Request: fold
Amino acid sequence: MPKFDSAALENLTRQFHQLPGIGRKTAERLALYIFKTSEQEAKELAEAVVRVKTEIRTCERCYNITEKELCPICENTQRDAGTICVVEDVVDILAIEKSNEYRGVYHVLGGVISPLAGVSPDDLHIQSLLNRVANEPVKEVLLAINPSTEGEATMIYLSQLLKKNNVKVTKIASGIPLGAHLEFIDDATIGRAIQSRSEI
Reply:
């Protein structure tokens, strides 16, 4: 495959190509776009990337992204602390929030159980979820995990653990296609799935 004669452009292209969903051609277009921008715009982009790495952390309670100890959702006293929505990744929180149908709090697992990928329950934020259920006034845990084979297995595993704590365990309604990711589902469909959740 042809490459740029410039080592700097080629290096930037490689960096973009490593990002999820960015193919070689898109990476080349992004690198050329950066080349054509002003030096000030390039510096602002670089500073924005560095700020994300130096100023953003995960919430101590739910593992959402934040710039403080707790994220804005955990800090919001108007949210229903009695309901925890368990999601696979931070991007799923954004998708659910856009639906305007959920008023509880969240817990980000950081993935799903996948023996083939070497991901065990110990690699996820499961114990901290169990600690929250044991120590906070939690009445319901809503499992909003992407409906893949690994996601379904993770939901079954979690429901078995959570039921030992005498908490209601529900999952979002079907209507989310098998194998689909919440971040790609439209707001209305996610909203209906939240409203029509069923007990496990």
The first strand starts at residue 57 and ends at 58.
